[in-house]
Amino acid sequence: MFNSKIKLGVIGRQETFNRLNNSINSNDKTIWFHCASLGEYEQGFPLFVELKKKYPNHKLVLSFFSPSGYEVKKANSIADVVVYLPIDTKDNCKKFLDLINPEIVVFIKSEIWPNYLNEIKKRNIKSILVCAIYNSSQMKYGLLKKAVLKFDYIFTQDEKSKDLFKSIGHNNVFNSGDTRFDRVSMSKNLNEDVDYIKEFLSEKDCLIAGSTWGNDHEILTSYINHSKSDLKYIIAPHEINKEEINNLKSFINKKTVLFSELNNENIKTASVIIVDNIGTLSKLYKYASLAYIGGGFNGEGKLHNTLEAAVFSLPIIIGKYYSKFPEAVSMIGIGGMFSVNNAESLKNKIDELIGDKEKLQKTGALNSSFINNKIGATQCILANLK
Asked: What is the pTM (predicted TM-score) of this model?
């Protein structure tokens, strides 16, 4: 899997300059957005939408470092052209910027490329870092410190990061908050229906397990196989790999159907759906009664997006590793999210919530209120750009 991603990136970068040559004319006005991967794209999306409205005559150039973002969004994004970011060499930076000649550059979160930023600064191109979140140990690296000072504007997720950037000499820093809250709010308002899901649920409660992998599957399948309730299950693995999905299916002893194979007949008797495509998960949360979000059993820093479930007023269960995710810490603090240590504690928490409908609803409402109180980062960014 890892080697195949590297290969995709190598091949894709060979096409970048040709793609730009064919898509951008010398008289085009452009805005360049750069994201590491798909998560950063989703994070930046609300700002992309607003800038597109503000500059309707500009072409939007979107670059990714990772295949996980590029391969999903290369033919389906807000941008006019999507490319891999060429490796951060001086020659590549000059050639890339010569081709797109952007008026505005937006980097998301933690993408700091010194040569690109040096060249952007030399050309007096307006540069913006959004959703930045850093700690003092990261700023010990002189190259990083010098690079971030090249940005004209920095918008942070929290006050601590804002103070850190100011302490190293950047005077144009604002604590805007996190645009992910704006993004999940936008997704909820789309309210897209998904075929067969209402028929699958038959008005029963549903546990949706999002972005699961590794140890998540062992713990989840243990619960599913031993539970005597009529709870329905939707599992959306993090990696869409045919062999792994079939392996997961083989461990479940209840009637299980792949999302790609749903039809009017098999949906009637299925207890479990495994989602075997990318892009559907966020549309499925609205059908669930509670959520399990993956990654928290697989080590620190591995927890996946909990906000997509929270916005739909779902109680959320995660594994034991979550300390690097402020939103998870906050939702656990207010009582809308629960961390479990093993299969037994997962069973106890699911049974407790499903067995008490009033608690189920009140717990989920805490999470949606948390989201609603955090919306507004995009407007803060726009208001402070000059």
From this structure: 0.92
